[in-house]
Amino acid sequence: MKVCETGQAAEAATPVGSPEVDDRALARLAGGEDAAILPGYRRRARWPLFGALALALVAAVLLALAWGSVRIPVGTIARMVALRTPVVGPRLGIVADWPASSEAIIFKIRLPRVLLAGLVGAALALAGATYQGLFRNPLADPYLIGVASGAALGATVAIALRLPGGLYALGATQWAAFAGAALAVALVYGLARVGGTTPLSTLLLAGVAVGTLATACTSLLLYWQREQLLAVYSWLLGSLTLASWSRVGALAIYLALGSLALLPLARLLNALQLGEEEAHLLGIDVEKLKLALVVAATLVTAAAVSVSGLIGFVGLIMPHIARLLWGPDHRTLLPLSALSGALFLIAVDGVARTVLAPGEVPVGVITALCGAPFFLYLRGGSKRLAL
Description:
Elements: H1 23-29, H2 46-66, H3 74-83, H4 88-92, H5 100-135, H6 147-160, H7 165-169, H8 172-192, H9 200-224, H10 229-236, H11 245-262, H12 266-272, H13 276-281, H14 286-308, H15 314-326, H16 330-354, H17 363-379
Helix pairs in contact: 2-5, 2-16, 5-11, 5-14, 5-15, 5-16, 6-8, 6-9, 6-10, 6-14, 8-9, 8-14, 11-14, 12-16, 15-16
């Protein structure tokens, strides 16, 4: 009979996050006294890492705001933002000596797009790190169990129906994509249930089956509605051209809810790296933990996809880079992946909207071009694929 770290058998699993979970054992798993339990663990002070990435993210936002067909100095942008800050602006005595057109460009066009890019990148990277930990596979990504195919089907249905223009203005395509992604994952999870449990291998197989079915339905709709091909493909390639403050606010809410659900589970996700049976012996209700992880990760992924289309590889590349640089402790890995994803997509979107100016390259194309070399890098050695 297997025993937990304290030497006593776990007779029954307790709910996720229960105080009866063996804290001493989990502390060791998370990098406490015996950090070697997590392969590749590197002891790192957390706050300097978060601070450095946060500063880099602020710098990336300012540079992205200044970068474009109309160049606006970073110092002017900083003063614009400070002037609109209720407490800071009046005290600093800032005078609006810039053209009104520059302020309109920043606050009506660039700032919503840059913030949306950051939120989408953070959501995809956070979900990717969660799925990689759940499946114990660094090649897992947020689209693994049907989110992408379900969202594509939902968006295609909304576009093919030719709804009144007012409904599209209210976000009919985005809501249909969100609903399609959520329903696809719910169907996958339901099909994967076997005798009250959800084996990860069965979850993967169900995800492949449902994803294939959704893709086939999408292709069939496109065949029937050929005149809608351009509209559908522009969404499928991923783009942030329709960024708005309403989309920024909606995604920020979903990302905040998902983060509040996922970050407290990071310690238990560390324990899950030893295997489901070992985590159960530590007193963790593994089935509830898997359900909570899937629901929260799907929530943030579906919200991101609904406002940006299918932007691939962000949820694969950034969590893996974060793991290689800072180790596999999910208490650090999840937030650092989110910050790295935000930084990466802001930079990529800046390239996408300026490299062929006045035209624009779909941001999903740029991330795909980054993803192919990264796959080759991963293929270069088996050690890089270890969690």
